[in-house]
Write a structure and sequence with these properties.
Largest sheet: 5 strands, parallel
Oligomer: single chain
Structural class: alpha/beta
CATH architecture of the largest domain: Alpha-Beta Horseshoe
Shape: globular
Strand content: 15-25%
Strand order of the largest sheet: 2-1-3-4-5
Low-confidence stretches: 109-133, 213-233, 455-464, 466-478
CATH topology of the largest domain: pyruvate-formate lyase- activating enzyme
Mean pLDDT: 82
Length: about 475
């Protein structure tokens, strides 16, 4: 048996994509996955550093795996924490054998790495120049499940007051459309049919605009060259990418959309996929607080946009997330958020306590909110939204839906993003990767219970399932 590795992934879906790329590189070096940490010759932790809680989880995981590894096994730390705090990790955690930030080998074979040097220094900074070993365009192994995340860009050009991502992920750099389509083809080459791809990026709707030659090398992707859309707004390169992928995969889902970028052309493209799921990065609804966050919009504008989409697609599902306790947040701001949640009736919402990040605009602001008050506000928001989510799930009882079976006993309609939202409980004998018409018999918290067969009609207020999804081939020649 060859050398074996164990890869632990923390953080967001974008990190999972990076880990898939790293698996491909380790396989190319002749390594095999280990059955457990203790069986591995190489233990890798792909870390998260978005907020303080994520950094602490990363450190705790590093120390736990250091204790579990076999004698002589190397421990390598990569990902956001390695990029942002690599020098500190190398100095303060002697358990780590190698700190490998973005774009460098996990085995320490990158050019310029001296023997015994536990650091691999690299900083992308404010540049669009990719490192020589760029995770974005590395090959991935076929997907082992009927869905897969696909990262279409790295970095971010925005300047949100609370976010440090641009400081360690760099400015936005988008992939060529051809490379994305090729990756999806590779993902679809596995034993399980690929039924859904989930597009991710720090700023997904801005995909391709940073490329001077366009997202596919055609010149259509520069900010000055975007074509007019079929309705309001401009036709962003993401629109053409979504349509290209929809011809290949039954479901295409988009995560993390800035509300200011959600123009008519993009809404049209999303609705055409048959997955009317809108994950909107809102963060708050109070205009003064959003201004302090250096964000666009306000609660009224958000409600108006949501209402416009629902007028075209009454069954559309909406997800968002909100920061609670941002510096300067008042009781009035909090009350506005509670009232807005009741008005908006979103399907899925996450609430996160503000985390002070060094180097951000927010770190310079006064008006900090006490931790106890932040926790109380989150409890109020969560209780309200849990009730809303439960009502919206109850409304689906009696509906006939199309379910993608993810694994034995578990599937999803278009309303549920993988690993984030609820699921549909399905008979265990249904094959993963299959699309099945089901009747919703019950709702248990965020989950639905389905039975095979179209029984009855959709309930009042619920849209029928989008037609045509299963009629599209899982793979087409290009």
């Amino acid at each position: 048996m060859g050398r074996r590795y164990w890869l632990e992934t923390l953080g967001c879906p974008k990190n999972q994509v990076d880990s898939d790329k790293l698996v491909g590189t380790l396989a190319a070096e002749g390594m095999e996955p280990a059955r457990s940490v203790g069986d591995a010759d190489l233990v890798v932790v792909n870390t998260c550093a978005f907020i303080e809680a994520a950094r602490q989880e990363s450190i705790d995981t590093i120390l736990a795996l250091a204790d579990e590894r076999a004698p002589g096994a190397r421990l390598v730390v990569t990902g956001c924490l390695a990029e942002r705090h690599g020098d500190e990790l190398a100095t303060e955690l002697p358990e780590i054998d190698l700190v490998a930030p973005f774009g460098h080998s996990l085995t320490g074979t990158a050019p310029g790495v001296a023997a015994g040097d536990r650091r691999v220094p690299v900083r992308l900074g404010a540049t669009r120049v990719a490192p020589a070993f760029d995770l974005l365009n590395l090959p991935r192994p076929p997907s082992r499940s009927p869905w897969a995340y696909v990262k279409v860009a790295e970095g971010c050009d925005r300047n949100c007051g609370f976010c440090a991502i641009p400081s360690f992920r760099g400015a936005q750099r988008s992939r060529h459309r051809a490379s994305i389509l090729a990756e999806v083809d590779a993902l679809a080459a596995g034993d399980v049919p690929l039924g859904e791809v989930v597009l991710v990026a720090q700023d997904l709707a801005s995909y391709g605009i940073d490329r001077s030659q366009g997202a596919d090398g055609s010149g259509a992707g520069s900010a000055s060259a975007v074509a007019p859309g079929p309705r309001t707004g401009t036709r962003r390169p993401i629109v053409d990418l979504v349509r290209s992928l929809s011809a290949t995969v039954p479901r295409v889902r988009l995560l993390y959309l800035y509300p200011s970028s959600l123009d008519g052309a993009l809404v049209d493209a999303i609705l055409e996929t048959g997955v009317p799921y809108f994950d909107l990065s809102l963060q708050h609804v109070s205009r003064p607080l959003l201004a302090a966050m250096r964000r666009w919009g306000d609660g009224d504008r958000f409600l108006e946009r949501i209402a416009e989409i629902r007028s075209e697609a009454p069954g559309a599902a909406f997800r968002s997330s909100f920061i609670v306790g941002y510096p300067g947040e008042t009781e009035d701001d909090h009350d506005r958020l509670l009232a807005w949640l009741e008005d908006a009736q979103l399907d899925w919402v996450g609430f996160f306590p503000y985390s002070r990040e060094e180097g951000t605009h927010a770190a310079t602001l006064d008006g900090g909110v006490p931790d106890a008050l932040v926790a109380e506000r989150i409890r109020e928001c969560t209780a309200l939204q849990d009730a809303i989510t439960a009502r919206r799930r109850d409304d689906l009882i009696g509906a006939t839906v199309e379910v993608l079976v993810d694994r034995p006993g578990e599937g999803r309609t278009y309303r549920e993003a993988p690993e984030i939202d609820g699921i549909v409980r399905v008979p265990a004998d249904l094959a993963p990767g299959s699309f099945v018409t089901m009747h919703i018999e019950a709702a248990v918290g965020p989950d639905l219970v389905g039975a095979v067969g179209p029984v009855g009609a959709a309930p009042v207020g619920a849209a029928p399932e989008p037609a045509g999804a299963r009629s599209r081939p899982a793979r087409v020649a290009r």
